[in-house]
Description:
The chain is mainly β. The chain is 2% helix and 55% strand. The protein has 1 helix and 19 strands. It has one helix at residues 8-12; strands spanning 5-6, 16-19, 24-27, 30-32, 35-40, 42-45, 48-60, 65-71, 74-80, 98-101, 104-113, 116-119, 122-131, 135-138, 142-151, 161-164, 170-177, 182-185, 192-194. Strands 4, 5, 7, 11, 13, 15, 17 and 19 form an 8-stranded parallel beta sheet that branches. Strand 8 and strand 9 (74-80) form a beta hairpin. It is globular.
Amino acid sequence: xxxxxxxxxxxxxxxxxxxxxxxxxxxxxxxxxxxxxxxxxxxxxxxxxxxxxxxxxxxxxxxxxxxxxxxxxxxxxxxxxxxxxxxxxxxxxxxxxxxxxxxxxxxxxxxxxxxxxxxxxxxxxxxxxxxxxxxxxxxxxxxxxxxxxxxxxxxxxxxxxxxxxxxxxxxxxxxxxxxxxxxxxxxxxxxxxxxxxxxxxx
Length: 202
């Protein structure tokens, strides 16, 4: 489900290149598929998304775009944030730029991109990539991943913050790039950290 625009030529060429995300996308039921895409000005999952061998993409932000393309036997995900900068979202009310994960997401790979990402449900995947954010918060629930990748919106004036501190988290490897005002990640098992910027703070 994508609340955005698809150019005629992209449709003819079978290119999943959606632009100008402008509507709200919500899942309150149960979805089972090999690939799930939810993209809009805001995205919320309070239901269950089950793609055990596949990809789940969630992208939120007014004016943003998302493109899916096949590459080397897999799927490449490119998210183009809205706003004036290459990595900036237009400011507005929280509902207009938030990704709310209060339900269950099960997949091989999860891509989540939004200015504000809130995890209060359960996310379980081999690989979880969080990107283009200014803040990631966790009020409850759990995030389980062999590898968690963090790539926030880069701004010297307002570095992003990450608070993934549930005692139920199970993260094997953390890869973080860029500078962070605060980076706090908790895991109940051994947590390996790699590719961390020397200017990042924890």
